[in-house]
Design brief:
heterodimer, A: mainly beta, ten-stranded mixed beta sheet, five-stranded mixed beta sheet, 4 helices, 15 strands, globular, B: mainly alpha, two-stranded antiparallel ribbon, two-stranded antiparallel sheet
Chain lengths: ~240, ~350
Amino acid sequence: MLSFSFIKKEVDQVDTATVTIQFVTKVGEVEMVPMKSYTNSSFEDFAVSKFKYYVSNFQMNGTGFTRAKGDTYFLIDEDDARTKKIEIKIEPGNYRAIRFLLGVDSLRNVSGAQTGALDPLHGMFWTWNTGYIMAKLEGHSSASRRPFNMFEYHIGGFSGINNTLKWINLDLTQPVSLKRNDHLHIKIGVNLLEWFAGPADISIEEKSSITSPGANAKRIADNYADMFTLVEAKPNEP
Amino acid sequence: MKKTKNTISILLLITSAFGLMADSCKKKDASANNPTLETLSVPEGFPAMAYDFTQNPLTKEGFELGRKLFYDGRLSRDGNFPCASCHQQFAAFSSFDHSFSHGFDDGFTTRNAPGLFNLAWQKEFHLDGGINHLDVQPLAPLTAPNEMAETIENIIRKLKADPDYPRMFRSAFGNDEINSQRLLRALSQFMVSVVSSQSKYDLVKKGESSFTPYEERGYTLFKAKCASCHTEPLFTDLSYRNIGLPGIPNLLDAGRMRISNDPADSMKFKVPSLRNVVLTQPYMHDGRFASIEACLQHYTSGVMDGPTVDPLVKNRIALNRSEIVDLVAFLRTLTDTVMTKNPRFADPESKPIFNPDPEQHD
């Protein structure tokens, strides 16, 4: 059985290249430390206790869009370092950008019980109003009037005017040519200041909890659509 | 390079052959090679089903697993609240005689439990339509703190530790894995199988029975005054409507608006099926009316107008006393005791010695 899995891996790699993506949570330029206090765009302190989000539907962009092989749904959990490094397989080619959906596409929101990263037991699924929580940020701020100065943002909604799904397009620092068995390492920064900052700034004092789909969730989603930046992309390094 | 490739494919062939052999041995061992496919036929005159069986093929083993789960209290936190505690077969799988159902830690639900039948024809679930797929509906009552109050992780842990479930999951889905998707799909297989299409009304439609004069007059009245919302043959058009019920203290329920955020949906609730209506008392989303007569009285004289009240009821519906008698006589023909007494849908682990018949009390 050992030899079987070894060979299977070899065969899989024959016609694909591998892209490893490391997500690094930041506040501005510095790496975010959970429970440490930072200041948002409304000059309010905030400390993060929970940060989870879905990334899915990975594609690489060369002359056109090439979808990554298989189902690419990942739940990134700040609390679990293993989830912050993901791997996708892509057909060999010349690429200059990576593209993914922040959230879970509408089809999977209407297709019943899912497994893996989309299993509802991960606490990212609304049971009373079907749909995935696309991204979740919880913590504490002296600006919050709630018990323990909590703030809680559970952002979702996959249809209509308050759709929170966001396509994230990130240009690589320079175009890469991936041959089979090549390995591209990408590091993506996720800047939490953008969660609060414009198009429409969110003040914790004004809105310390958003836990259902609607206009407020859409506001945050419009903000956090800008939180991803490409830090580096290095081809063919182990 | 070419040589390596060949070696790889030969090795692959050999290993997969071994793999297959190992697999078939295992399967024989479990005597659960293939679940037995079943088909749910669409009753005469019914539309096509909405449930997608390609994702969750109906099988004898899946149905039996779902049935056992439906009646198993261990799906709730303290063991006292199986699905069947609020969805009783003799009451067409509604909560008999309870405006709100009981849940964990003396909790109460906030809405009246609807009857469960003909779910394969529905695309949205709950009285506000908040659930968009039958498979994910059970997640709401399973995890709600005032209902079954359990976590999915705990349920799966309990099922894995049970002497019977691993075998039943293997029979239904091919291997021992117990996950939330299989749990939910098995429950769906049981629920979609509960079809109500053998009431007296259905027999009359097929020419196998006939209405009494009361029932006949009631049917004529029904078609003229009720059927635009309670549309045959499901006896609901599955829409959401506000029928002008006055607000009650301590229960602010915006209905469909809670899901859509649209003020135009304020106080709208799903039109319930009138099949088995005499068994599903009390009535309305909050169970405020104890009898069908009280419901009809609401339409004749109780409707309060408001911005979202349905145009079809806002001017109230004229019915005199004898018409109400006729209408109730017709509504009684919608009771399907073939379904409510079908042993296939009963608790697989108990044989009831007394099966209360709510019709006798009505």
